[in-house]
Design brief:
Radius of gyration: 23 Å
Shape: globular
CATH architecture of the largest domain: Up-down Bundle
CATH topology of the largest domain: Amino acid/polyamine transporter I
Number of domains: 2
Strand content: under 5%
Order of helices and strands: HHHHHHHHHHHHHHHHHHH
Distance between the termini: 45 Å
């Protein structure tokens, strides 16, 4: 069988949505709504581009090329190996997987404990159960549609709908005036909010697991696999759009009710307590546990699948166990330090991930010029690193007594002068310039090469 029934196609779409939809996807849309107010739907247009369309394109890009390795090899095999390993480690055991347990714990357990209760041992017990269950489900990555798509995803969507209906029946307020910077550039700010979810990086991981699930359902040939992936992506897009719209509306009316609150998690907590009382706290706890658990299972599966292919001598199940164990340890101790290290790494990796996804959809007459990939990714990586250095204040501030300070001042002025740098998108113009330089060099080289 090389085609899916509508039921199986729906399950694959639900599975893809479940793997993406974690804590950040719950928190950022209501945070956007609270700040954007009456401009919420303009901001949602930007969010839809960066947090819905781009991640789904990333999954499709990986499936088209067969793997992230193959896609990144368009730049260079050495770049492919380094970039792929960094992507899997950063979105896996070094940050995202441990955060699923720690975030769901904070939202689901302390609210039910007496004030001042020590949580160290409780959190350890929670993380043990959390990662044991995640490991058991990730044990068979080709069967994720049976667990995530068939069971957990529908439950999650129903719970979100319950909160949304509660807001419709008992609205706490109406949309407030937009807060800066949503009052002038809501679409751009919405795009940047979606950028923070880091789903484009996760997308480069999830493609392989989706292919495994399609093969389990009987789809093996490359064209039907790609077709089924595109359809699953469309289903996931619809689910994302509905979920984000409901959460953004919740945030917009809550932002007006709780003007001092800007954090998405706090907005959701206050709203469900106000509307549903104690039942609301239980409802929100279940939502965060299920969303974080789904993402955790998806990330353990895709990371273990990749590293098993990289080092076949270690079975997939051993990799899954190691990642679950390491993530459990990090979620309980040193997460703050790991995040402090990981965030700069993600800031370096995210722009080239976006550019690589977009380059994968170049027309054939352009994609044949490999120098476009080399030039664009090289410029993007360079400026991502430079902006990260600037954000970390790695260079000393300007003081006339030190000769190096003049270079530092020029460095900051140069980076700040690049268009879109004030919006965190200073790498965009260099990426375009790199692509044009690569194309020009490729055309020149092809003209200079001896014919025949």
């Amino acid at each position: 069988m090389n085609t899916l029934s509508w039921k199986h196609q729906l399950l694959v779409g639900f599975t893809l949505f479940s793997m993406f939809f974690g804590a950040g996807n719950l928190i950022f849309p209501p945070q956007l709504g609270a700040a954007a107010g009456s401009h919420t739907w303009y901001a949602m247009a930007g969010l839809s581009l960066s947090a819905i369309l781009l991640p789904i394109l990333g999954v499709i890009a990986v499936v088209r090329y067969g793997s992230l390795d193959a896609l990144a090899s368009q730049v260079h095999p050495t770049f492919s190996k380094i970039f792929t390993i960094l992507i899997y480690l950063s979105i896996g055991p070094c940050l995202a997987i441990p955060r699923t347990a720690s975030t769901s714990f904070e939202m689901a357990i302390p609210p039910f404990l007496p004030s001042g209760t020590p949580t160290t041992w409780i959190q350890l017990g929670y993380s043990l159960v959390f990662f044991l269950l995640a490991f058991l489900i990730a044990f068979n990555p080709e069967r994720l549609t049976s667990y995530l798509g068939r069971v957990l995803c529908p439950i999650l969507l129903v719970l979100i709908c319950i909160i949304f209906l509660g807001c419709l029946i008992h609205p706490l307020a109406s949309y407030a005036d937009p807060q800066p910077p949503y009052d002038f550039t809501p679409v751009i700010q919405g795009f940047l909010t979606g950028y923070q979810t880091m789903d484009a990086i996760a997308a480069l991981n999830f493609g392989t697991v989706i292919v495994l699930n399609l093969q389990t359902l009987g789809v093996h040939e490359s064209k039907p696999v790609l077709s089924a992936t595109v359809k699953a992506g469309l289903i996931a897009c619809i689910l994302f759009l509905l979920s984000y719209s409901m959460l953004a509306h919740i945030g917009a009316i809550s932002g007006a009710a709780f003007l001092e609150t800007s954090n998405g998690a706090t907005i959701l907590t206050r709203l469900v307590q106000q509307i549903f009382g104690y039942f609301g706290t239980i409802l929100l706890a279940l939502i965060f546990i299920i969303a974080c658990f789904n993402t955790c299972v998806g990330l353990i599966s895709c990371c273990s699948t990749y590293f098993h292919k990289l080092i076949p001598s270690l079975p997939y199940h051993i990799w899954a166990f190691l990642f679950a164990l390491l993530s459990m340890v990090i979620s309980n101790a040193g997460l703050t330090q790991i995040m402090a290290f990981s965030v700069p790494v993600l800031n370096i990796l995210y722009p080239p991930a976006i550019v690589l996804i977009l380059l994968s959809f170049l027309p054939r007459f352009l994609s044949s010029h490999r120098a476009i990939y080399v030039g664009s990714i090289s410029f993007t990586c360079l400026f991502s690193i430079l902006y990260t250095i600037q954000d970390l204040h790695a260079l000393a501030p300007f003081t006339p007594k030190h000769p190096i300070s003049h270079f530092t001042l020029l460095f900051h002025r140069f980076l700040n002068a690049i268009p879109l740098s004030d919006m965190g998108l200073g790498w965009v113009l260099p990426a375009m310039i790199g692509a044009l330089v690569g194309l020009a060099l490729s055309l020149i080289w092809s003209d200079l090469r001896p014919k025949g």
